Amino acid sequence: xxxxxMIQGTSQQVNLTFLQSDGSPIDLTxxxxxxxxxxxxxxxxxxxxxxxxxxxxxxxxxxxxxxLTLDPIDTSTLTAGSYRYDAKAIAASGTExxxxxxAFVVKAAITRSIT
Length: 115
Fold this sequence. Notes:
Blueprint: E1 4-7, E2 12-17, E3 32-38, E4 51-55, E5 65-70, H1 72-75, E6 81-90, E7 96-107
Parallel strand pairs: 1-7
Antiparallel strand pairs: 2-5, 3-4, 3-6, 6-7
């Protein structure tokens, strides 16, 4: 995974690919992907998540590829700073694969209103 940097209140597409340990893709057909952003890298639960998304429609499920859109509402109220994110796929077969954590940085918006 790679670091994600966003400006408060903007949108961004995130593309993810899930592979098994041997490098073959996880088939996401009828599976789910969970994407979570948190200020704590070892939270006790998802209750403290700053952003949480569940993806059920995948861009290329047989190749383990999915994408999600982070919407302006997702970051508009977040305090500028550093967070951590991860993603977990659960295939229809029950196989679970988690992508490693990485940095999620929110930068303050300079322009606050557009007329």
